[in-house]
Amino acid sequence: MYKVLLQKRYKGDLIKSQNVIKKLKFSTFIPLIIITIGFVFFIINSYNKLTELHTLKANVTHITEISKLINHLQQERGLSSGYLGSDGEKFKQKLLQIRKAVDTAFENSLQIYSKDKESYLAKKRIVTQIRKKIDTKEIATSNAFDFFTKRIKHIQFIYLKSAIHVDDTFLNNKLQCYTNLSFMKEALGQIRGTFNGILTQNKIDKELIHRAIHAKGMYDTSMHRYESVASKDFLELLDNVKSSSDYQYIETVTTAYFSHTPQKSLENPEVWFQKTTHVINQFYQIEKKYLSNIDIYITHKINNTMIELYIDILLFLLILFFTFWISLKLKNEIIKNIRLLNEYKNAVDRSGIVSKTDITGKIIYANDRFCSISGYTREELLGKPHNIVRHPDMPKSAFKNMWETILAKKPWYGIVKNKKKNGGSYIVEVTINPILNHDGEIEEFIAIRNDITKVVKLHEDLEHTQEDLIYRMGEIGETRSQETGFHVKRVAKYSELLAHYYGLSIQEITYLKTASPMHDIGKVGIPDSILNKPGKLTQEEWRTMKTHANIGYELFRDSDKPLLKTAAIIAYEHHEKYDGSGYPRGLKGEKIHIYGRITALADVFDALGSDRCYKKAWDDERIFKFLKEERGKHFDPQLVDIFFEHLDEFLQIRDYYRDTSSFMQE
C-alpha cells in the first residue's frame, strides 16, 4: 500500500532508490527468502530423518549386543538351576564358562545397559553376590531362577526402550517380530531353567513347576503374536525349528511333567539342557537374521536420504547462484542511479520523522520533521515521555506490546495514530529499534516514521469505491430482470440488520452488507426471454433460471479477496432452503452458510412486497403469514424469530427505501 525506503552502503555512499530497489526486492529478496525457507525446511527435514536413521542404526547395533547378553544370561540361569538342583554335582564347568561369556557381554553392552557407571558396577556386584550364594548353595533353586529372570526382564526393558515405535511400516513390523521372538526365546529359556532344576533334583519341585507353567503360557502368547505378524520366510524358519527332533523332545518332556506323568527315560538333565539350548540357539539365529535385515534396510534408507540431502543442497546452491546472478545485473542499474540518489539523500532525511528516547521512554532527540508534523517545538518535546503525542484512539494494549517487544531487544513495527499539539491527528508507519551497547544492553531507542495519513485516507476511499462498484454491479443484475436498484439496497440493509442481531462480527456484517447486492448477479447470464417472462416458466426454462446461482458463484469463486468470497457464497447459497429443498445443491440446515441463510430471508421478504413481471406485490399480512409458515422450512427459524422481534426496524428500512422515493446515498 505504501513504499519502504531501503538503505544500503556502496563504496561509502548511501544509496536510496524506490524504483530500482522495488525491482530488487521483488525479483531477488522475496523469492530468495521463500526459496531459502523452502529448502531449509527440506534440508532440515532430511537431516533430521538422517539423524533418526543413524540413531536407529546405532540402536540396532546396541540391541545386537543386548541380545547376545540376554542369550548368555539365559544359559547361566539354566545352568545355575541345574547346578543347585544337583547340589553342585552337575554343570559346574559349563557354569564357570558361561559366566565369563556373560561378563564379556556385559562389558560390550555397558553404554546401553547403564548410563551411570557406578550403577552398572553396583549391578555387577549384586550378580557376583548371587553367584557366590549359588557356589555355596546358600540360595534355593527357585530364588536363583527368579533373580536371573528379573535381570533378563530388566535388560529386555532396555531393549524395548531402544526399539521405540517408528513410523516406517517395514521397520515397525520387523521390530515387533523381533520383540515377540525375543519373548518366545526368553519363555523357552525359563522352561529350560526350571526343568533343569527339576530334573537334577529328580523330584517334582512345585515352585519350579509353577514357574514353568507360567513360562509356557508366556511362550504360547508370544508364539501367537509372532505368527500373526511375521513374514512368510521367517515363519518357515520357525516351522523348521518346530519340526526338529529337539523341539519335539522339549514338547514331550514338558507335556509329561505338566500332566504329572514324567518318564524316567526322558529325565536326563544333560540331554535336556543340550537339546533345549540347541533349540534356543536356533531362535537366537533367527533373531540375528532379523537384526541383520533391519540393519541392511536402515543402511539403504540412510544412503537414499543422503542422496536426497545432497540433491536438496545442490539445488539450493544452484538457485542461490542464479538469484545472486540476477542481483548482480540489477546492481549495475543501482550504480547508474548513485548520483541521482545522493541528490535525494537530504530530501529523504528531511522527510523522515525521527526521534530517539532513553530507556525510560523520554524523548532525547527529535528532528525538524517530527516537530513540524506534531506542532511541538523541540524544547517542548525534549525530556517529555513519548505519550505526549499519543492519540486517545490508540489503546494502551498496543503500546504495552510495543514496550514488551523493544525491551526484549527486538525491533517493533506498526501503524500508529498520533495527536498533534492543536488536537489534530496524523497516522504514521513506525519502526522502533533498540540501540545496544558493546555489552549487549539497551542504550536508547530510535524511531523512524513515515507519514501515511494520505495513504490511509486513499485506502479508505478505495474501499468505499469498491463497495459502491459492487453495489452498482448488483443493480445490473436486478435491472436486467426489470427490478429497481432499491431492491438491492433494501436487501443489503435487511441483511445487515439480521446479521447484527444474529451476533456476527463487525467485519462479517460489513462483508455481508457490502456483498449482498450481488446475490442475483448471475442473472446477467440468463436470457431476457426467461428472465422477464410474465407467465409461468416451463421446466426447461426453470432449470435455466436456477443456473444463475452457479453463474454468480463462478464469477467470484477464485478470488482471494474476503469481500468477493462473501459475494460468491451469497450468490451460490441464497436460494438454498433450511429443509434441504432449495437449489442448486439442496443444502440443509446449518450446512447452508449463515450468509446464504440471511440473504435468503432478506431477499424473499423484499421480493414478496415488490411488484414483479410475473406477480403483484403481496400485502403485509400475507407476507408475514408466509414467513411464519416457512419457519424451519425455507428459512432459518432463529432468523425468522429475529425478524419478527425487530419487525419495526425492518419496516422502517422498507419505507425509507421505497421504489417510489428518490435514491438516497448513505
What do you see in this structure?
The protein is α+β, with helices and mostly antiparallel strands and 666 residues long. The chain folds into three domains: 46-308, no CATH class; 352-451, PAS domain (Beta-Lactamase, 2-Layer Sandwich); 457-656, Hypothetical protein af1432 (Orthogonal Bundle). It is 68% helix and 7% strand. It has 24 helices and seven strands. The strands form two sheets. Strands 4-3-7-6-5 form a five-stranded antiparallel β-sheet, sandwiched between helices. A two-stranded antiparallel sheet has the order 1-2. Strand 1 and strand 2 form a beta hairpin. Helix 6 (169-201) runs antiparallel to helix 10 and helix 9 crosses helix 10. It starts with 7 loop residues before the first strand and ends in a 10-residue tail after the last helix. 30% of the residues are buried.
